[in-house]
Write a structure and sequence with these properties.
Two copies of one chain form a homodimer. By secondary structure, the first copy, chain A, is an alpha+beta fold. Chain A contains twelve helices and 19 strands. In chain A, strand 2 and strand 3 form a beta hairpin.
Chain lengths: 443, 443
């Protein structure tokens, strides 16, 4: 009988092992994909692509027991050679090739010059050939940073006593209803894809006090802009026993501080590749919605067209204002108009035209919507009635409040938008692995 | 201007703070939901439910500045009192109540006796009233253990050099095709919900070498059994540069070892609540599919009806056999018949009726399917042709191989099934927050 006893250390070494001093001067085995081959007369540089970066190998005629022409770009190989220090090579290491074992060969020449530092290719082409274009080291680095953000979200919240939940994406009814729902047939019953885990995470506050979820959400919106997706990853949290919606903004600030520290600690290489300037998170200004509109109207001589709505250009100007006046990368805009918020939002008891809610702008783009929710059963029923909404399909949601719920609130963060602003891309599709939009359903 | 500077420490204390010695004899504030009130004549026990557990409070007439009747079960409160040591109370602490601030009141009496240790309620009723039934401390503990498992999966894989990815759930085509797909209208185009991230995670192996995803998958199967769900959380990984499919089984063994350690370290309370016996993960036997069938046929005098299929009862017997003969909780069954595996599975070069694949059984239930995949472009095209499958919709997937791919493989773990086997439930709906099955689309 064979037994599995755990992860096996394999003989080929990883890049981080090669960059230390342990193996200099020694014969080692390394595997990877042949990223590029540069012929220089008697010698050739064969660059291996590994998950941690690139390794320069040197092929010298006579020194190796194989012919250079056996190697092909995009082949995957296991090579043996002697590791040497070489200041001009990436990472300061170079491998003098002795022998090779071909693991796999490509069937065609690469359609994109992935070995160039910047991939000079249209967004369309990049997305059509995602599994090739992301082999470019700079392109793939965006998604390592994205990993750092979602990982930071979870690790921070575990430490803050949150419980991770998994709520269903197929349902009979969704949080905000309306026209932006994808509809499907569920064993001959009409069903929708959830546009948000909103109702579920609220229901779970009565169980776990603090919950979070990192999962896809689906919006059938017919927007075709640089900042909209029809499917995206939402970082959601919901917390009970709050004293006010400021507690939720404070929690998000804490997350951002934690995430930026994590990036600096564990993703320094990727930050460097994108020359990311870590945004300031120590003091994030919070400004009322109506006041923010006034401030940008005054400073940039812009007429307020609709006092109850915020246009994308106004968001940009608010971002600019707070960068200029306070050197702030983020700004919380609070007290959004009640009309613009869903039924479950808590109205401001001092002025019910506004809500105890907020958006977070990052360099002038909304990356978060959050706020306090109604926790009183009767107040919730009245709000539904006032909006002319039916209770049908909301029975179990409403019952949750009937049987007692603490004051609570939460937020949702768009992961792809947060990544986009961090690296400074100008289209959210650039920071989405496989974007879904009005025209794109493949690959 | 107001500024957010990070998480604010609130005055009310958490249970873990109260269980230490720092606050004994002191006046403290605590918030929570009133789990139950037990009247004992002159005094009453008011038990608060908090996210970390229960806190016993004592109400004594004259000692408190409020009347007992002001308190109601399911109300949420912030109480002030003096903390005392009390061996008979849960956690050895008791709070002598002085004053109360009511945060919220319920609108109706609780429909379930959630304060009982075991909730004697049908599964149907529990699921219909999920946000109430999970307020039972034992019920909710299952989902903390579930959190520990998914958290362990991610933390282990980050450390093993895997990159986390987020692949789209709406697509034009899915991995295995066939009849078990939910279909929807995507802006007047036919689309499906992904039954697995299979094709995407393979495509990303060419980019990141090692990837994982923890996300929902959707299966329109008309099974109505205790182990099937139509939507579940799949823990998926895919890794390149493997020497054989044993590397994948070794990685899964490593994950299980890590996860069980994490549970013991961070989820001891929940393990205790469910009296979980941690399964053995140090040596997991691996047995060939055909050999496993023979072994149980011999030992339990069971006729082999179909040599190329494994019935659920056979899985149970394999689990029993390895428990009896090797005291094993898990067993890898390897070399599944090619007919039973999808087109991308790598056939065994020594006998192409079988594949280089495996299932992992936990106490006789399949919780994982995995294996080595075809990485050669021509071999993949031939397999598609042999199966009479079209390449339509698979263009970008196939191109990935055309431009070179390392030998690779991976697996998918059903999170709800893994949780079910760990706590010893007999229906996977018991370990699913909001199950979706043939008849259940709500709540």
């Amino acid at each position: 009988m064979e037994f599995m006893t755990g992860v096996r250390k394999t003989e080929p070494l990883e890049l981080s092992e090669l960059l230390g001093d342990d193996y200099v001067g020694q014969q080692v085995k390394v595997n990877g994909a042949i990223h590029t081959i540069r012929h220089m007369g008697e010698v050739a540089f064969v660059v291996l692509r590994k998950r941690e970066g690139l390794l320069q190998c040197v092929y010298e005629e006579g020194a190796a027991d194989f012919l250079l022409k056996e190697l092909k770009e995009a082949a995957t190989v296991e090579v043996t050679g002697v590791l040497e220090k070489e200041d001009r090579a990436p990472g300061g290491r170079e491998l003098r090739l002795k022998s090779v074992k071909i693991l796999s060969l490509p069937d065609a020449a690469m359609p994109l010059a992935i070995a160039k530092w910047k991939l000079h290719t249209s967004l369309e082409a990049k997305l059509n050939m995602r599994s090739v274009s992301l082999r470019n080291v700079r392109e793939r680095a965006k998604f390592k940073l994205q990993e750092g953000l979602v990982r930071g979200f979870r690790d921070f919240l575990y430490a803050q006593g949150f419980t991770e939940i998994h709520t269903p994406k197929i349902g009979a009814k969704s949080a905000e209803g309306g026209s932006n729902l994808f509809r499907l047939d569920y064993f001959h019953r009409p069903a929708v894809l959830q546009q948000s885990p909103q109702l579920y995470k609220q229901m779970m506050v009565g169980v776990f006090d603090r919950v979070f979820e990192t999962a896809p959400v689906f919006r059938a919106e017919k927007h075709n802009t640089k900042r909209h997706l029809n499917e995206y990853t939402s970082l959601d949290l919901e917390m009970g026993y709050i004293e006010g919606f400021e507690d939720i903004m404070a929690m998000e600030t804490g997350f951002l501080q934690y995430a930026m520290d994590l990036l600096k600690r564990e993703y320094a290489k990727e930050l460097q590749i994108w020359k990311v300037t870590i945004p300031k998170t120590d003091r994030i200004p919070a400004v009322r919605f109506d006041r923010a509109k006034e401030l940008v109207s005054e400073k940039y001589s812009r007429r307020i067209r609709n006092p109850f709505d915020l246009e994308p250009e106004e968001e940009l100007l608010i971002g600019r204002y707070f960068k200029e006046e306070y050197d702030a990368d983020f700004v919380f805009v609070t007290h959004y108009p009640s009309k613009k918020r869903p039924f479950y939002a808590m109205d401001d008891p001092e002025d019910s035209r506004y809500t105890l809610s907020f958006d977070l702008l990052y360099h002038g783009l909304e990356i978060t919507t959050g706020g306090q929710r109604i926790h009183d059963y009767q107040m919730l029923k009245e709000k539904l009635e006032k909006r002319g909404m039916t209770e049908e399909g909301l029975e179990q949601y409403l019952d949750t409040f009937r049987y007692g719920m603490p004051p609570h609130g939460g937020l949702g963060i768009g992961l792809e938008r947060l990544t986009m602003q961090l690296v400074g891309e100008d289209n959210v599709r650039e920071t989405t692995l496989y974007p879904r939009d009005l025209s794109r359903l493949e690959p």
